[in-house]
Amino acid sequence: MLREAARQRLQAIAEQGQTRLRRTAHSPTAVHQWASLPGQEPLRQLHFCSNDYLGLASHPSVVQALVDGARRHGVGSGASHLVTGHHAAHETLEQVLAAWFEPWVEQARALSFSTGYMANLAVVTGLAGLVPADEVAIFSDALNHASLIDACRLSRAAVHRYPHADLQALEHALERCPQRLRIIVTDGVFSMDGDLAPLPPLMALAQAHDAWLVVDDAHGLGVLGARGRGTVEALLGSGVGVTATDRLIVVGTLGKAVGAAGAFVVAQADLAEALLQTARPYIFTTASPPALADAVRASLGLIESEEGSRRRAHLQALVARWRSGAQALVQRHPAAGWALLPSQTPIQALVIGDNRRAVALSAELEGLGLRVPAIRPPTVPTGTARLRITFSSDHTPHDLERLLAALSDIAEHAT
Ligand SMILES: *Cc1c(COP(=O)(O)O)cnc(C)c1O
Predict the structure, then answer these.
(1) What pTM was computed for the model?
(2) Are 110 and 266 in contact (CB under 8 A)?
(3) How far apart are CA 107 and CA 157, in angstroms?
(4) To test the ligand 1 pocket, which listed residue (53, 145, 152, 187) has its Cβ within 8 A of the most ligand atoms?
Protein backbone atom coordinates (compact mmCIF):
# COMPACT_ATOMS: atom_id res chain seq x y z
CA MET A 1 0.00 0.00 0.00
CA LEU A 2 2.68 2.46 1.01
CA ARG A 3 4.84 1.81 -2.04
CA GLU A 4 1.78 2.08 -4.25
CA ALA A 5 0.98 5.47 -2.67
CA ALA A 6 4.57 6.59 -3.23
CA ARG A 7 4.43 5.49 -6.87
CA GLN A 8 1.17 7.36 -7.44
CA ARG A 9 2.47 10.51 -5.79
CA LEU A 10 5.66 10.46 -7.84
CA GLN A 11 3.63 9.95 -11.00
CA ALA A 12 1.36 12.89 -10.15
CA ILE A 13 4.39 15.09 -9.50
CA ALA A 14 5.89 14.04 -12.83
CA GLU A 15 2.63 14.70 -14.71
CA GLN A 16 2.56 18.24 -13.35
CA GLY A 17 6.12 18.71 -14.55
CA GLN A 18 7.15 19.26 -10.92
CA THR A 19 9.78 16.56 -10.52
CA ARG A 20 12.88 18.10 -9.02
CA LEU A 21 16.30 16.97 -10.14
CA ARG A 22 18.98 16.89 -7.53
CA ARG A 23 22.34 18.08 -8.74
CA THR A 24 25.61 16.94 -7.22
CA ALA A 25 28.37 19.47 -6.66
CA HIS A 26 31.93 18.39 -7.40
CA SER A 27 33.76 21.51 -6.27
CA PRO A 28 33.54 23.95 -3.35
CA THR A 29 30.60 26.33 -3.11
CA ALA A 30 31.46 29.18 -5.47
CA VAL A 31 29.88 31.16 -8.25
CA HIS A 32 31.64 28.88 -10.76
CA GLN A 33 30.93 25.35 -9.73
CA TRP A 34 31.25 21.87 -11.19
CA ALA A 35 27.94 20.07 -10.86
CA SER A 36 26.27 17.04 -12.39
CA LEU A 37 22.75 15.81 -12.97
CA PRO A 38 22.01 12.14 -12.12
CA GLY A 39 23.88 9.88 -14.55
CA GLN A 40 25.62 12.75 -16.33
CA GLU A 41 29.15 14.10 -16.40
CA PRO A 42 29.95 17.17 -14.25
CA LEU A 43 29.74 20.53 -16.04
CA ARG A 44 31.25 23.83 -15.00
CA GLN A 45 28.44 26.30 -14.50
CA LEU A 46 28.04 29.90 -13.48
CA HIS A 47 25.59 29.92 -10.58
CA PHE A 48 23.04 32.56 -9.72
CA CYS A 49 21.31 30.47 -7.08
CA SER A 50 23.44 30.20 -3.97
CA ASN A 51 22.79 31.84 -0.59
CA ASP A 52 26.54 32.24 -0.06
CA TYR A 53 26.03 35.96 -0.66
CA LEU A 54 29.47 37.09 0.49
CA GLY A 55 31.52 34.19 -0.84
CA LEU A 56 32.52 33.22 2.70
CA ALA A 57 31.71 29.48 2.48
CA SER A 58 35.11 28.86 0.89
CA HIS A 59 37.00 31.82 2.34
CA PRO A 60 40.53 30.73 3.40
CA SER A 61 40.23 32.26 6.91
CA VAL A 62 36.92 30.55 7.56
CA VAL A 63 38.23 27.22 6.25
CA GLN A 64 41.35 27.61 8.39
CA ALA A 65 39.27 28.31 11.50
CA LEU A 66 37.30 25.11 10.90
CA VAL A 67 40.46 23.06 10.40
CA ASP A 68 42.14 24.52 13.50
CA GLY A 69 38.94 24.05 15.49
CA ALA A 70 38.69 20.40 14.47
CA ARG A 71 42.32 19.83 15.55
CA ARG A 72 41.64 21.35 18.94
CA HIS A 73 38.10 20.15 19.67
CA GLY A 74 37.69 17.06 17.45
CA VAL A 75 34.75 16.76 15.09
CA GLY A 76 31.56 15.75 16.90
CA SER A 77 30.18 17.51 19.97
CA GLY A 78 29.19 14.13 21.38
CA ALA A 79 25.84 15.08 22.91
CA SER A 80 23.11 17.67 23.14
CA HIS A 81 23.85 21.06 24.69
CA LEU A 82 22.29 20.15 28.05
CA VAL A 83 24.21 16.89 28.40
CA THR A 84 27.88 17.33 27.45
CA GLY A 85 27.73 18.83 23.96
CA HIS A 86 27.92 22.51 24.92
CA HIS A 87 31.50 23.63 24.31
CA ALA A 88 33.41 26.80 25.16
CA ALA A 89 33.44 27.49 21.39
CA HIS A 90 29.60 27.61 21.39
CA GLU A 91 29.65 29.77 24.51
CA THR A 92 32.05 32.31 22.97
CA LEU A 93 30.02 32.43 19.77
CA GLU A 94 26.82 33.07 21.73
CA GLN A 95 28.50 35.98 23.49
CA VAL A 96 29.63 37.48 20.20
CA LEU A 97 26.14 37.13 18.73
CA ALA A 98 24.44 38.63 21.78
CA ALA A 99 26.77 41.64 21.54
CA TRP A 100 25.95 41.99 17.84
CA PHE A 101 22.25 42.49 18.60
CA GLU A 102 22.46 44.45 21.86
CA PRO A 103 21.44 47.73 20.16
CA TRP A 104 18.04 46.28 19.17
CA VAL A 105 17.30 43.55 21.72
CA GLU A 106 17.23 44.58 25.35
CA GLN A 107 19.32 42.37 27.69
CA ALA A 108 20.28 40.31 24.66
CA ARG A 109 21.31 36.69 25.05
CA ALA A 110 21.99 34.32 22.16
CA LEU A 111 21.28 30.61 21.98
CA SER A 112 22.81 28.44 19.25
CA PHE A 113 20.95 25.87 17.15
CA SER A 114 21.99 23.28 14.61
CA THR A 115 19.81 24.67 11.81
CA GLY A 116 17.54 27.61 11.11
CA TYR A 117 14.64 25.25 10.71
CA MET A 118 15.13 24.07 14.28
CA ALA A 119 15.69 27.59 15.63
CA ASN A 120 12.34 28.64 14.17
CA LEU A 121 10.57 25.56 15.54
CA ALA A 122 12.14 26.27 18.92
CA VAL A 123 11.39 29.96 19.17
CA VAL A 124 7.77 29.69 18.07
CA THR A 125 6.78 26.49 19.86
CA GLY A 126 8.99 27.27 22.84
CA LEU A 127 7.60 30.75 23.49
CA ALA A 128 4.01 29.75 22.70
CA GLY A 129 4.41 26.74 24.98
CA LEU A 130 5.10 28.92 28.02
CA VAL A 131 1.35 29.53 28.47
CA PRO A 132 -1.69 27.29 27.76
CA ALA A 133 -2.33 26.93 24.01
CA ASP A 134 -5.72 28.66 24.13
CA GLU A 135 -4.05 31.83 25.42
CA VAL A 136 -1.68 32.22 22.46
CA ALA A 137 -2.22 33.84 19.07
CA ILE A 138 0.46 33.88 16.36
CA PHE A 139 0.35 36.37 13.49
CA SER A 140 2.30 35.15 10.50
CA ASP A 141 3.09 36.91 7.20
CA ALA A 142 1.66 34.93 4.28
CA LEU A 143 5.07 34.72 2.59
CA ASN A 144 6.97 33.45 5.63
CA HIS A 145 9.45 30.61 5.25
CA ALA A 146 8.15 27.03 5.48
CA SER A 147 9.95 26.49 8.80
CA LEU A 148 7.93 29.29 10.41
CA ILE A 149 4.71 27.90 8.95
CA ASP A 150 5.51 24.46 10.34
CA ALA A 151 6.43 26.02 13.68
CA CYS A 152 3.04 27.75 13.84
CA ARG A 153 1.28 24.46 13.16
CA LEU A 154 3.27 22.64 15.81
CA SER A 155 2.60 25.33 18.40
CA ARG A 156 -1.15 24.50 18.59
CA ALA A 157 -1.79 28.22 19.05
CA ALA A 158 -4.43 30.16 17.10
CA VAL A 159 -2.65 31.20 13.88
CA HIS A 160 -3.61 34.25 11.81
CA ARG A 161 -1.91 34.43 8.41
CA TYR A 162 -1.98 38.04 7.33
CA PRO A 163 -1.55 39.05 3.66
CA HIS A 164 2.08 39.78 2.83
CA ALA A 165 3.32 42.92 4.66
CA ASP A 166 -0.28 44.12 5.10
CA LEU A 167 0.00 46.23 8.24
CA GLN A 168 -3.70 47.17 8.25
CA ALA A 169 -4.82 43.56 8.12
CA LEU A 170 -2.36 42.74 10.90
CA GLU A 171 -3.56 45.62 13.02
CA HIS A 172 -7.15 44.60 12.51
CA ALA A 173 -6.38 41.03 13.60
CA LEU A 174 -4.42 42.27 16.63
CA GLU A 175 -7.28 44.55 17.68
CA ARG A 176 -9.72 41.68 17.78
CA CYS A 177 -7.36 39.21 19.40
CA PRO A 178 -8.73 37.74 22.64
CA GLN A 179 -5.56 35.79 23.46
CA ARG A 180 -3.22 37.28 26.00
CA LEU A 181 0.09 36.18 24.44
CA ARG A 182 0.51 37.57 20.92
CA ILE A 183 3.49 36.74 18.74
CA ILE A 184 4.07 38.29 15.31
CA VAL A 185 6.46 36.29 13.13
CA THR A 186 8.04 37.53 9.92
CA ASP A 187 10.95 36.91 7.61
CA GLY A 188 13.35 39.89 7.59
CA VAL A 189 14.09 39.47 3.87
CA PHE A 190 11.43 37.44 2.07
CA SER A 191 13.13 34.52 0.42
CA MET A 192 11.23 34.40 -2.89
CA ASP A 193 10.63 38.13 -3.56
CA GLY A 194 13.69 39.64 -1.87
CA ASP A 195 11.74 42.48 -0.25
CA LEU A 196 12.12 43.57 3.38
CA ALA A 197 9.65 43.27 6.24
CA PRO A 198 8.40 46.71 7.34
CA LEU A 199 10.17 46.48 10.69
CA PRO A 200 9.58 49.95 12.19
CA PRO A 201 5.77 49.80 11.82
CA LEU A 202 5.78 46.15 12.89
CA MET A 203 7.62 47.17 16.07
CA ALA A 204 5.10 49.95 16.63
CA LEU A 205 2.21 47.50 16.22
CA ALA A 206 3.87 45.08 18.62
CA GLN A 207 4.17 47.82 21.18
CA ALA A 208 0.64 49.17 20.69
CA HIS A 209 -0.94 45.73 20.97
CA ASP A 210 1.25 44.16 23.63
CA ALA A 211 2.73 41.65 21.19
CA TRP A 212 6.20 40.15 20.56
CA LEU A 213 7.93 40.38 17.21
CA VAL A 214 10.06 37.48 15.93
CA VAL A 215 12.18 38.35 12.88
CA ASP A 216 13.78 35.50 10.94
CA ASP A 217 16.69 37.21 9.19
CA ALA A 218 18.09 34.23 7.30
CA HIS A 219 18.70 36.27 4.14
CA GLY A 220 19.56 39.63 5.70
CA LEU A 221 22.31 38.68 8.16
CA GLY A 222 25.74 39.59 6.81
CA VAL A 223 24.27 41.22 3.71
CA LEU A 224 22.34 44.24 5.01
CA GLY A 225 23.29 47.05 7.37
CA ALA A 226 26.49 49.05 7.62
CA ARG A 227 28.18 46.33 9.70
CA GLY A 228 26.30 43.41 8.21
CA ARG A 229 23.99 42.87 11.16
CA GLY A 230 21.09 42.43 8.83
CA THR A 231 17.58 43.73 8.40
CA VAL A 232 17.42 45.15 11.93
CA GLU A 233 20.48 47.29 11.30
CA ALA A 234 19.31 48.29 7.82
CA LEU A 235 15.85 49.36 9.03
CA LEU A 236 16.38 50.35 12.67
CA GLY A 237 19.78 52.00 12.25
CA SER A 238 22.13 52.11 15.19
CA GLY A 239 19.27 51.35 17.57
CA VAL A 240 19.37 54.79 19.15
CA GLY A 241 15.83 56.04 19.75
CA VAL A 242 14.27 52.70 18.80
CA THR A 243 11.45 51.82 21.16
CA ALA A 244 10.07 48.32 21.68
CA THR A 245 13.54 46.76 21.84
CA ASP A 246 12.01 44.84 24.74
CA ARG A 247 9.67 43.13 22.24
CA LEU A 248 12.08 42.04 19.51
CA ILE A 249 13.45 38.53 19.04
CA VAL A 250 15.89 37.86 16.21
CA VAL A 251 16.57 34.54 14.52
CA GLY A 252 19.65 34.32 12.31
CA THR A 253 20.94 31.46 10.22
CA LEU A 254 24.60 30.71 9.69
CA GLY A 255 24.45 28.68 6.47
CA LYS A 256 23.76 31.56 4.10
CA ALA A 257 25.87 34.75 4.03
CA VAL A 258 27.85 33.51 7.04
CA GLY A 259 28.92 30.58 4.87
CA ALA A 260 28.87 27.88 7.56
CA ALA A 261 25.86 26.08 9.09
CA GLY A 262 23.61 26.43 12.10
CA ALA A 263 21.50 29.22 13.52
CA PHE A 264 20.82 31.26 16.62
CA VAL A 265 18.08 33.06 18.48
CA VAL A 266 18.71 36.37 20.24
CA ALA A 267 16.16 37.30 22.88
CA GLN A 268 16.00 38.87 26.30
CA ALA A 269 18.01 36.76 28.72
CA ASP A 270 15.03 35.30 30.57
CA LEU A 271 13.33 34.28 27.33
CA ALA A 272 16.53 32.69 26.04
CA GLU A 273 16.84 30.80 29.33
CA ALA A 274 13.22 29.62 29.01
CA LEU A 275 14.00 28.30 25.51
CA LEU A 276 17.11 26.56 26.80
CA GLN A 277 15.05 24.87 29.54
CA THR A 278 11.97 23.97 27.49
CA ALA A 279 12.33 24.13 23.70
CA ARG A 280 12.38 20.59 22.34
CA PRO A 281 14.36 21.42 19.14
CA TYR A 282 17.06 22.79 21.45
CA ILE A 283 17.06 20.00 24.00
CA PHE A 284 16.62 16.85 21.95
CA THR A 285 19.33 17.14 19.36
CA THR A 286 23.10 16.86 19.24
CA ALA A 287 24.98 20.15 19.50
CA SER A 288 26.70 21.17 16.27
CA PRO A 289 30.47 20.56 15.99
CA PRO A 290 32.35 23.07 18.18
CA ALA A 291 34.82 23.70 15.34
CA LEU A 292 31.91 25.02 13.33
CA ALA A 293 31.36 27.68 15.99
CA ASP A 294 35.00 28.73 15.51
CA ALA A 295 34.46 28.96 11.74
CA VAL A 296 31.34 31.04 12.29
CA ARG A 297 33.26 33.41 14.54
CA ALA A 298 35.93 33.84 11.86
CA SER A 299 33.20 34.58 9.35
CA LEU A 300 31.45 37.09 11.62
CA GLY A 301 34.81 38.81 12.07
CA LEU A 302 35.14 39.14 8.29
CA ILE A 303 31.56 40.37 7.95
CA GLU A 304 32.13 43.29 10.31
CA SER A 305 35.60 44.08 8.94
CA GLU A 306 36.66 46.37 6.12
CA GLU A 307 36.63 43.33 3.84
CA GLY A 308 32.99 42.65 4.72
CA SER A 309 32.07 46.25 3.89
CA ARG A 310 33.86 45.95 0.55
CA ARG A 311 32.02 42.73 -0.26
CA ARG A 312 28.66 44.28 0.65
CA ALA A 313 29.39 47.36 -1.47
CA HIS A 314 30.32 45.20 -4.47
CA LEU A 315 27.17 43.13 -3.99
CA GLN A 316 25.03 46.28 -3.90
CA ALA A 317 26.70 47.52 -7.09
CA LEU A 318 25.92 44.21 -8.82
CA VAL A 319 22.29 44.42 -7.71
CA ALA A 320 22.00 48.00 -8.99
CA ARG A 321 23.58 47.10 -12.34
CA TRP A 322 21.33 44.02 -12.66
CA ARG A 323 18.23 46.08 -11.93
CA SER A 324 18.95 48.72 -14.54
CA GLY A 325 19.95 46.07 -17.12
CA ALA A 326 16.98 43.82 -16.39
CA GLN A 327 14.54 46.74 -16.32
CA ALA A 328 15.75 47.86 -19.76
CA LEU A 329 15.43 44.28 -21.03
CA VAL A 330 11.86 43.98 -19.76
CA GLN A 331 10.94 47.26 -21.44
CA ARG A 332 12.60 46.31 -24.74
CA HIS A 333 10.55 43.11 -24.93
CA PRO A 334 7.06 43.89 -23.64
CA ALA A 335 5.63 40.94 -25.58
CA ALA A 336 7.61 38.53 -23.41
CA GLY A 337 5.50 39.66 -20.44
CA TRP A 338 8.39 39.55 -17.98
CA ALA A 339 8.43 41.69 -14.84
CA LEU A 340 11.12 42.56 -12.32
CA LEU A 341 9.87 42.59 -8.73
CA PRO A 342 11.03 45.49 -6.55
CA SER A 343 13.92 44.35 -4.34
CA GLN A 344 17.13 45.98 -3.18
CA THR A 345 18.60 42.72 -1.85
CA PRO A 346 20.68 40.08 -3.66
CA ILE A 347 17.44 38.09 -4.12
CA GLN A 348 16.01 39.24 -7.45
CA ALA A 349 12.85 37.80 -8.99
CA LEU A 350 12.18 37.99 -12.73
CA VAL A 351 8.52 37.01 -13.01
CA ILE A 352 7.76 35.03 -16.17
CA GLY A 353 4.19 34.08 -15.25
CA ASP A 354 3.56 30.73 -16.93
CA ASN A 355 5.10 27.66 -15.24
CA ARG A 356 6.28 25.97 -18.41
CA ARG A 357 7.85 29.10 -19.84
CA ALA A 358 9.72 29.75 -16.62
CA VAL A 359 11.05 26.19 -16.62
CA ALA A 360 11.98 26.37 -20.32
CA LEU A 361 13.83 29.62 -19.75
CA SER A 362 15.78 28.15 -16.86
CA ALA A 363 16.65 25.14 -19.05
CA GLU A 364 17.80 27.39 -21.90
CA LEU A 365 20.07 29.29 -19.55
CA GLU A 366 21.43 26.01 -18.24
CA GLY A 367 22.26 25.03 -21.83
CA LEU A 368 24.40 28.18 -21.91
CA GLY A 369 26.20 27.21 -18.72
CA LEU A 370 24.16 29.49 -16.43
CA ARG A 371 22.29 28.04 -13.51
CA VAL A 372 19.25 30.14 -12.57
CA PRO A 373 16.40 28.17 -10.99
CA ALA A 374 12.74 28.52 -11.98
CA ILE A 375 10.45 28.79 -8.96
CA ARG A 376 6.85 27.67 -9.47
CA PRO A 377 3.66 27.45 -7.47
CA PRO A 378 3.01 26.32 -4.79
CA THR A 379 6.29 27.90 -3.64
CA VAL A 380 5.09 31.20 -5.15
CA PRO A 381 1.52 32.36 -5.98
CA THR A 382 -0.18 30.96 -9.10
CA GLY A 383 0.69 32.88 -12.26
CA THR A 384 3.96 34.23 -10.84
CA ALA A 385 6.41 31.49 -11.86
CA ARG A 386 9.77 33.17 -12.01
CA LEU A 387 13.49 33.01 -12.29
CA ARG A 388 14.97 33.54 -8.85
CA ILE A 389 18.37 35.10 -9.26
CA THR A 390 20.72 35.49 -6.34
CA PHE A 391 23.96 37.40 -6.46
CA SER A 392 27.18 36.86 -4.58
CA SER A 393 29.98 39.33 -3.99
CA ASP A 394 32.16 36.82 -5.86
CA HIS A 395 30.29 37.52 -9.11
CA THR A 396 32.25 39.79 -11.41
CA PRO A 397 30.65 42.47 -13.58
CA HIS A 398 31.46 40.16 -16.51
CA ASP A 399 29.44 37.30 -14.92
CA LEU A 400 26.49 39.64 -14.64
CA GLU A 401 26.81 40.81 -18.25
CA ARG A 402 26.80 37.16 -19.35
CA LEU A 403 23.46 36.65 -17.62
CA LEU A 404 21.95 39.82 -19.08
CA ALA A 405 23.21 38.99 -22.58
CA ALA A 406 21.81 35.45 -22.39
CA LEU A 407 18.41 36.70 -21.25
CA SER A 408 18.43 39.34 -23.96
CA ASP A 409 19.16 36.71 -26.67
CA ILE A 410 16.40 34.47 -25.39
CA ALA A 411 13.89 37.34 -25.25
CA GLU A 412 14.77 38.31 -28.82
CA HIS A 413 14.12 34.85 -30.16
CA ALA A 414 11.02 34.28 -28.08
CA THR A 415 9.17 37.34 -29.33
C1 LIG B 1 17.03 29.04 4.86
C2 LIG B 1 15.99 29.59 5.75
C3 LIG B 1 15.70 28.98 6.98
C4 LIG B 1 16.27 27.66 7.40
O5 LIG B 1 17.59 27.76 7.79
P6 LIG B 1 18.52 26.48 7.74
O7 LIG B 1 19.68 26.81 8.57
O8 LIG B 1 18.83 26.25 6.30
O9 LIG B 1 17.70 25.34 8.31
C10 LIG B 1 14.80 29.61 7.81
N11 LIG B 1 14.19 30.76 7.43
C12 LIG B 1 14.42 31.34 6.24
C13 LIG B 1 13.72 32.60 5.89
C14 LIG B 1 15.32 30.76 5.37
O15 LIG B 1 15.54 31.32 4.17
Answers:
(1) 0.96
(2) yes
(3) 27
(4) 145
